[in-house]
Every structure is written in C-alpha cells, then in structure tokens.
Specification:
CATH architecture of the largest domain: Sandwich
Number of domains: 4
Radius of gyration: 39 Å
CATH topology of the largest domain: Immunoglobulin-like
Structural class: mainly beta
Oligomer: single chain
Length: 469
C-alpha cells in the first residue's frame, strides 16, 4: 500500500509503466495512437531498441512520419551531462524502430518527436533505468470526457474555487514602445529662393524659442540687389504697367514683406535682407554660420511648434488586426509622474520590415513643453472586442497544444472538457467552443485536479497489493 499511497499525492505526474516487450503499451499523442514496446525488457546496458506503431483516429497506420530521438542523463556532481541520438528505421505498416545505446546504469530520459504528414508536432517523454523492469511514459494532460469525484472537503483542501462562463465585454491591451516626435504639420523651414551670403546670425543656436516674425539672420544677395535696382530704375523712368508689375511680383515671390517692398520704393536698394521666422516654435536645426554662401532652396533653419506633439507607438505585427483609429490609449513617460490619456489618430498602412511592427500615432497637447522630441514612452492601447463568451484564465489547464477546463457537474463531480480559446483579454479568455454560458468551472488548483483525473484513470491497473500489473 505504500506505493499506492504515494501515487495518490495530488501533485504527482502520473507515469504509466510499460509492460514487457511483446505486450506493447498504447498512449495518445494528439489524435494519434502510439503503441510502444521495448527490447530487451528489463533493459540492460548497451544497445536498446524501441518499437513504435503509429495509428490515426480510425486505426489506419501512419506512413511517412519523421521521428526524432534524444537520450539524456543530466549532470550529477562532477559527472557532465550525457546526451545523444538514436537511429530511426522505417519498418512499414506504420511501424518504426529506434536503436540507441544505454552507456551505464542510472535514470535515462528519452524524448521521441513525431512529425506525421498533415498533423501537428507531437512529443513523448519517457524514462528508463537499466536493471529495473519496464519503461515509463509521461502522459501529460487530463483525460477529457469522464467526470472525477472530488468531495467538497477535498476541493477546499487543495484550494479549488469556481467561476462562471458568461458573455462579457472584452478588450485587448496592446502594449507598445513609443517615441515622442514633432508634429510634422507644425514644422517650418526657412529657405531662400536666390543665391545669398549670410552676413549676420541673429539666432545662432538650436533649441532657442522664437516667435513668428522674429529676425533670424541678415543676408546679402547680388541677385536681390540687381532686382531691386531694376525696380528703382523703372520707377525713375516712369515705367508702369506690365514691366513694373513683373518686377514687383518677382520680389514678392522671393518672400519680401510689404514693409521691405516699401523700403525699396523709397530708394533703399542694398541687396540685404533680414530673414524672419515664418512661425513660432523651437529652433530644431540651424544649418548655417556667418559667412556661409547659400544656394537657392538650402534650408537655413527648421522650426517646430511643440505645443502639440506626436507619440509614435510600434505595435507588434501580430496585433495589427486589432488596431484602429480612435482607440483610447495611455502613455507613460519616465519624466512624468502621471500617465497621459490619448487616442490613436493614425495607423500606418505598412509594416516596418526590420522591426515587424506597425506604427500607431497618438496626438498629445503639450502646453508646458514637458514632452520633448526623442523621449521614450510606454504605450497601452485599448482595443475593444465587443461582447464575447469568456472564462477566467485561471480555469484553463494548458497541456501541449490543448486547453482543458473542469466543469462542475454537481455532487462533487468535475468533468474535464477540452476548450478552444480565442483572444486573451487581461484575466479573461475568449471561449470559441467546449463551454457554454452559465457553466461553472474550477478556477484554482487545475494542475492538482489534472493529477487526480489521471490517477482515477490509472487505478484500475493497480492490484490489491498496490503493485503495477
């Protein structure tokens, strides 16, 4: 009875002992049935063989599967880990043989990977020890379908609580890294439309705040001087009409202000011009020094208004389907004590090929200029999913690619049910199949319940003396 009592410990992972060679043990791997036999039995040191037969749900043999095999003994003290592979041979009829060595006594751990055509990857874990009878197979997972009896006192002892499957409003939280940038609509560049030389800089450094119309630099241009003198000559000769109008229009196209035009009309043509800020903001770039020769179109200054900025959030490509304009967001920056509220104003139409992210733009008012271009931010975007059938995530037990929930059937009976899930929304998980609204499911100790379910399934294999048959 000692072994039986030990096996009833709730946290024990059940290991189903294989019988001797010639009486193979069948286990499940996804929708496959795998029959395993070992030779020799009990195993001895040296060459050893596993015989596997793969069958589909209808019992049909599975041909063409690819099997991988690894044997391993963990490091112990000064002895390093020992690890190797086996030789897989196809026998036909869904039968496969794996030849491998057991170099010494002790516990050896075996792993068989199964890649059958048209099926997901499956893996079997086994343990063998030379000199001991049988192999053991770790059959992870809860046997869905058959209810187990767990009395109320037992539920309380192992910490089982319950929740309800229900229709609930779900919302995903899309977490992304963000960066503060200047609002491109509030950028201004100061350029010239004629060749000139910078005589004096009135704003000589970046980072300066300037107002609209503030003088930035004084330039001298031979082209400007020539145009001014032509206009003055036309005025002195009394020329009017298209000639004078064309000369005035030329100077206006060169961005001369009405006051500067009036100065020329008063006979003050010297080819010098004071360049002023076209908009208020911060000088982000200054590309000239005194004496610089400036070609037409060369930017002298770039000015940005930081009263409203962008936060560009890089959202993972896999979450692109949940992202849309108008979603609420929360922005946290190390420089600010409280998070800022914002909304998604724009979603980029393309994915960045290097980072595999999609850009979501948030617009934030910045009256105190606390947000500065280049700052990093953590962004949480709320993506509502609508009302969907959901279950608390604590009710689900993950075993490989499958998820199970224990449904309360009354009278202490808990039935393991396989569940197909959808989106994860915080502590709730969308249910696509397997559960219905109103189902009462176990929330705590699902791993212990899984162990109990497997023990109940194993008890018929034990004799009165507690020894495995």
């Amino acid at each position: 009875m000692t072994r039986l009592a030990a096996c009833l410990a709730p946290a024990l992972i059940l290991l189903a002992t294989l019988p001797a060679a010639g009486a193979p043990r069948s286990v499940r791997a996804g929708d496959l049935t795998v029959s395993i036999a070992a030779e020799p039995a009990p195993p001895r040191g040296g060459e050893t063989r596993l015989d596997l037969t793969l069958a589909g749900p209808g019992g049909q043999p599975i041909e063409g599967a690819t099997l991988t095999f690894v044997w391993d003994m963990p490091a112990m003290g000064a002895m390093p880990e020992m690890r190797g592979n086996g030789e897989v041979k196809l026998q036909g009829g869904g039968r496969y043989a794996i030849q491998y060595p057991l170099p010494m006594s002790g516990d050896w751990f075996l792993s068989v990977g199964i890649d059958a055509p048209g099926r997901a990857h499956e893996e079997l874990k086994m343990k063998v020890a030379p000199g001991r009878p049988g192999f053991t197979v770790d059959e992870a997972g809860a046997p869905a379908g058959r209810a187990i009896m767990v009395p109320l006192a037992r539920q309380q002892l192992i910490g089982v609580t319950f929740g309800t499957v229900a229709m609930r409003p779900l919302a995903l939280t899309l977490r992304a890294a963000g960066r503060v940038e200047v609002d491109e609509r509030n950028l201004s560049e100061v350029t010239l439309k004629y060749e000139a030389f910078v005589q004096k800089l009135l704003v000589a450094e970046t980072g300066r705040t300037v107002r609209r119309g503030q003088p930035l630099a004084v330039v001298y241009s031979p082209d400007l001087l020539s145009a001014e003198e032509e206009l003055l000559a036309a005025r002195r000769t009394g020329a009017a009409g298209p000639l004078a109008a064309g000369l005035e229009r030329r100077l206006a196209y060169w961005d001369l202000s009405p006051a500067q035009m009036q100065a020329i009309e008063r006979g003050k043509a010297d080819g010098r011009l004071t360049i002023v800020a076209p908009a208020g903001g911060v000088v982000l770039e200054k590309n000239v020094v005194e004496g610089t020769r400036v070609e037409p179109g060369t930017p002298l200054y770039r000015i940005g208004n930081l009263g409203r900025v962008w936060v560009q959030a890089a959202v993972a490509e896999r979450e692109a389907a949940f992202l849309s304009v108008g979603q609420p967001a929360r922005v946290r920056l190390p420089a600010l004590p409280e998070p800022l509220e914002a909304r998604v104003a724009f979603v980029a139409p393309m994915v960045d090929e290097k980072t595999r992210t999609i850009e979501a733009r948030l617009e934030i008012k910045n009256p105190r200029l606390a947000l500065r271009p280049g700052m990093f931010a953590d962004v949480d975007i709320q993506a509502p999913l609508g009302t969907r059938l959901s279950v608390p995530d604590g009710a689900l037990l993950l075993t490989g690619e499958h998820r199970y929930a224990f449904v309360d059937r009354g009278g202490g009976r808990l039935q393991p049910v396989e569940v197909e899930v959808g989106a994860q929304a915080g502590e709730l998980v969308e249910v696509r199949s397997g559960l219905s609204a109103g189902d009462r499911v176990a929330l705590g100790a699902t791993f212990l319940l899984s162990s109990e379910a497997k023990l109940r399934d194993a008890l018929p294999r034990w004799g009165d003396g507690g020894e495995a048959r």
